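#lab-general

N.A. 3:47 PM
ok so I finally got the sequence cleaned up, no stray characters, all 494 residues accounted for. can someone with queue access submit it? mine expired

B.Y. 3:52 PM
send it over

N.A. 3:53 PM
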Amino acid sequence: MVINNATKMFEQSFKNIDDILHKDAGCGSELDYVEQTSWVLFLKYLDDLEQDKEDAAVLSGTEYTRLISPDYQWLSWAAPKNSDGTLDNDALTGDDLLDFVNNELFPYLKRFKSKANSPDTIEYKIGEIFSELKNRIQSGYNLREVISLIDELRFRTHADQLEMSHLYEGKIKNMGNAGRNGGEYYTPRPLIKSIVKVIDPKIGETVYDGAVGSAGFLVEAFDYMRNIKQLSTQDIETLQKRTFYGKEKKSLAYIIGIMNMILHGVEAPNIVHTNTLAENIADIQEKDRYNVVLANPPFGGKERAEVQQNFPIKTGETASLFMQHFVKIMKAGGKAGIVIKNTFLSNTDNASVALRKELLENCNLHTVLDLPGGTFTGAGVKTVVLFFTKGEPTKNVWFYQLNLDRNLGKTNPLNEKDLADFVALQKTKAESENSWNVKLKDIDSDTFDLSAKNPNTPEEAPLRQPNEILNAMAALDKETADVMNDLKLLIGDD
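B.Y. 4:20 PM
back already:
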């Protein structure tokens, strides 16, 4: 019941906020709505988090010093309250509120980056967030309304945090579809959950996404790993500080990714704002490698010649460069689940052939999940998921073709039930109507083409030529005429 109420509360609040921002001159799209909601939401969440730590310190007989100094705490500028809990009449609004936020609050929060002891602290992440974001809300009265709505939200219980994080994911999904490639920010969460189940990351393993976007893979891996077993204090610290790593090139995606992880419970995400492909993979050392790689690199991007020089297999295709990076950055025995365009399986250019050869020879590509069109709303491309381990050659590839009895789209998205059969069969690589095995020796050694056709699909009858159809019709006509003549003779005999 609590969860249902929390869901309704968050849903209605987000809808009301969108309505307010829609009227504001500084916000023109869903991208702006998410960005502006995010920074206000983050500050409220941070205040609740600090309050929880303060309360815990009191119970344990210790002291907790808040990160945010008194003048910049939520209850000082955003929601000062009277003794009865109502908003103080002197609360900032209009131009006064805008002036404070733009000229005092944001500059104060930016300075956290330079004051932090290291990049893996929440102080540093606060500084990064407010160095990258800016307040775009132009009306101080609209901003006051947004703040008031977010002030009503509560993040103090695990159920509330769970519901809020799920709905925030929904907003990110909408942002991904706001006139852009849907895969830029958002990979369908049912697909990510299924990939994580197949990979089955364990506590103590490191998880990496070099095209982190909104951090969906890292968030789902975190949720999966913290529910594997009853966690010890050491396990919790390992998950918080030494498990999840990511890189992101684009500023907004980077900030959204950080906030998404914090809102899901990872207090200081190890996400770096950098162009992954600008790194020469020859410089990657053992200390830089990870146990698990989960990623959905950008579809269809093209890279300049100077970026291509960082890779042994030269190509302008962004996803192919990412694939080389992922293989290189995996530890021996490491596991990967990578979403990529299905053309990766069959492209005939030299780079694609060389990349498939390297993958098959140096990794065990044990599973290929073939996804239907419409899986990525707005992307307009067909995709596959490659599952492989590093350090042993491929001997057998298990293919699974996801055939659904409906077309996927915005109103009819992919769900976990759609993928349940795949997850179940993958454990044993069993053959079925939708799955089959291909031995490496049966793959063309010149092209390494992996676009295997499902042998278990009944062959459709070939279409007949027009002459064949006409001849068949003529034969039927003659047969009918013969039958009629026979009947006439019978009748005449009577």
